[in-house]
Amino acid sequence: MTDTRQRATQLDRLLRPDEARAIVLANVGPLAPEQVPLEQAGERVLVYPLIADVSLPPFPAATMDGFAVIHDDPASQRRVLGSGFAGDDPSVTVVPGTAAKIMTGAPVPSGADAVVPVENTATSDGIMTILQPRVGSGENIRPIGADLRQGDRLIEAGTLLGPAEVGLLASLGHAQALVGRRPRVAIISTGNELVPPGETPGPGQIRDSNRFSLAVAARRAGAVVVVNRHIRDEEDELRAGIQAALEAADVVLTSGGVSKGERD
């Protein structure tokens, strides 16, 4: 009874914005999540934390077009075994005195531990000569897990998904994402004095504007506007219109009728 009396007293005066916000937040909760295709997941809120279940890249990959070699191979010239392209499964093994032609992003073949850029080589009749003074171990190779490692916590639950986050989901094999459902919002402006924007107001009338601004604000906040209408200051019309809006939407926003007049 005390809470009811305090609430009545609180609502009998003009509320400060922080008070009004507190009342709203005390009476709302998360909507049930939904699965959406990844191409529709942008600007949605991820429900679960994203934890890497694999390391990326999953294989040592070349970062330059060139030749996969053994870095401390003393041979001055090396026989070219074949070519490796991005997406290929390497079928050769590099041994001393050999090299494998390789393209950026391709898996480094077994036995090789460095990649020499093609511009630092000369090739003739299937023989490759290295022109740079020395080759370092791991040179121009992106090792397993260079981008992310299995078990890494990549995105926290509650994160608004942008381009980078959606890319991470895709790279880890998520064709769908579990996200919070967009709230359905109904917007109602009230008042006998309102006319549509395209009409010329008569005596004592003004153009209806608030509900259009509210619709843009609601969509910008991530909502789906399912009702956007004007209702006259007639109790039966208002009651029926608000009831219908409550049945169609998760949130009903009204503009007008907030003072203490006879029709408010």
What report would you give on this structure?
With 264 residues, this protein is α/β, with parallel strands linked by helices. The chain has helices at 2-11, 17-25, 163-171, 210-220, 235-248, and strands at residues 33-37, 50-51, 61-62, 66-69, 77-84, 98-102, 114-117, 121-124, 127-130, 141-142, 153-155, 176-180, 184-190, 194-195, 206-207, 224-231, 251-255. The radius of gyration is 33 Å and the shape is rod-shaped. The chain is built from 5 helices and 17 strands. A hairpin with a 2-residue loop joins strand 8 and strand 9. The strands form 6 sheets. It has a 6-stranded mixed β-sheet with strand order 7-4-6-5-9-8, with no helix packed on it. 20% of the residues lie in helices and 27% in strands. The model has no long low-confidence stretch (mean pLDDT 90).
Q: What are the SSEs and their pairings?
A:
Layout: H1 2-11, H2 17-25, E1 33-37, E2 50-51, E3 61-62, E4 66-69, E5 77-84, E6 98-102, E7 114-117, E8 121-124, E9 127-130, E10 141-142, E11 153-155, H3 163-171, E12 176-180, E13 184-190, E14 194-195, E15 206-207, H4 210-220, E16 224-231, H5 235-248, E17 251-255
Parallel strand pairs: 5-6, 13-16, 13-17, 14-15
Antiparallel strand pairs: 1-12, 2-11, 3-10, 4-6, 4-7, 5-9, 8-9
